[in-house]
Fold:
Amino acid sequence: MSILRMTTAGESHGPGEACIVEGIPSGLPLTRDEIDVDLARRQRGYGRGDRMAIETDRCRFVAGVRHGRTLGSPICLLIENGDYANWVSKMSPDPMSEETTSDMGRFTLPRPGHADLAGVAKYGHTDIRDVLERASARETVGRVAGGAVCKRLLQEAGVTVRARVLSIGGVRVAASNDMCRAEDIDWDAVEASPVGCEERAASDLMCARIDEARGAGESLGGVFEVWCWGVCPGVGGYASMEDRLDGRLAGALASIPAIKGVQMGVAFDSADEVGSRVHDPILLMHDGDRRWIGRNTNRAGGIEGGMTTGMPVVLRAAMKPIPTLTTPLASVDIATLELSSAHVERSDVTAVPAARVVGEAMAAYVLAAAYLSKFGGDSVKAFAESVRSYEAGLEERGLWRRF
Ligand SMILES: Cc1cc2nc3c(=O)[nH]c(=O)nc-3n(C[C@H](O)[C@H](O)[C@H](O)COP(=O)(O)O)c2cc1C
Structure:
């Protein structure tokens, strides 16, 4: 069985963020530029903090790629932190006296909603910086770089992964619950929007809502939607709990910092409906003499029984408001146990547009892993041939049709 594994390392103000992706077949065309496109998309977004102005994330291959193609060995990607120059001594790995570290100032006022308090309890730290440097969502830079590699592999199987923002701070777009055709979404408009939302009017309202929140020292959350299309049926599995693709996708998306809810298709809306209005009827499609089984709704979000149905896989993720507030909530100093206010640090007002790009990366990672475990292949040629041969078999039996 081919196993795809992605791991990241790096502190928010350390020298850089690294991602190692193991299990990508050999011969996959890959350039830094295509990874940098996603890194830039993660950095953009109305409502992000000042840090984005001082960083321009670019990736460097440290291992696994030669002459524009993967070697089949672990791929190591490195993204330097532009801000590190200002943190060299504060982040130094070299031993330092208590006196020097306390001169640098300790961070002792945990922020409600962040990893600060549970993190110091868990690791025995006395400076919350030792927690937040890794708990910070800067870590998602590595995920996005690794996810871009997974997306590139999925392209070889005819699969595209994209996401858009549906709401920020209660300003919503009216998204269809049929979830059938990714082509009906204007993805260029999504990218052109400062908040990753295709509707111009809603986009403007979201920006106004963000300005209002910034003025009030507040932060905002929202919902984004990830689409994976061109997916064939039968990826994932029902035989064991680990095989179920919905469980793996939900886990991967919920592992993104601040993501607190994930749904497949219309999940939460379907809970209040009767079955006949939720399940997607199985229909017979015709084109001349050709007949095949298809659907004209996709409320299941492209997954039934833990497997892909051949319709687009559509997931929605809810992001809570950013924990760091410029008008901070109550907190207690962990050094003195005195009641105070939470630490204030440079922060985003909202990061839903950026989180959507991380959502793409996580969905691509899970889907690429499921594809590799089903189709195998030490070389990308063998992988793509295996996918094509399986899809041809499905088309021959009239069980699916690729468009
Ligand atoms: C792309 C992205 C950017 C984020 N930016 C910030 C930020 O600037 N300030 C902040 O306090 N939290 C930010 N967060 C959220 C925190 O990282 C997250 O709330 C924290 O790690 C605690 O984890 P939890 O919310 O999953 O419990 C961001 C999250 C993402 C996905």
Observations:
- Residues 352-375 form the longest helix (24 residues).
- The chain has one domain: 5-94+105-396.
- Residues 5-94+105-396 form a domain with the Chorismate synthase, AroC fold fold (CATH 3.60.150.10).
- Residues 49, 113-115, 135-137, 140, 256-258, 320, 322-324, 347-348, 351, 354-355, 358 surround flavin mononucleotide (CB under 6 Å).
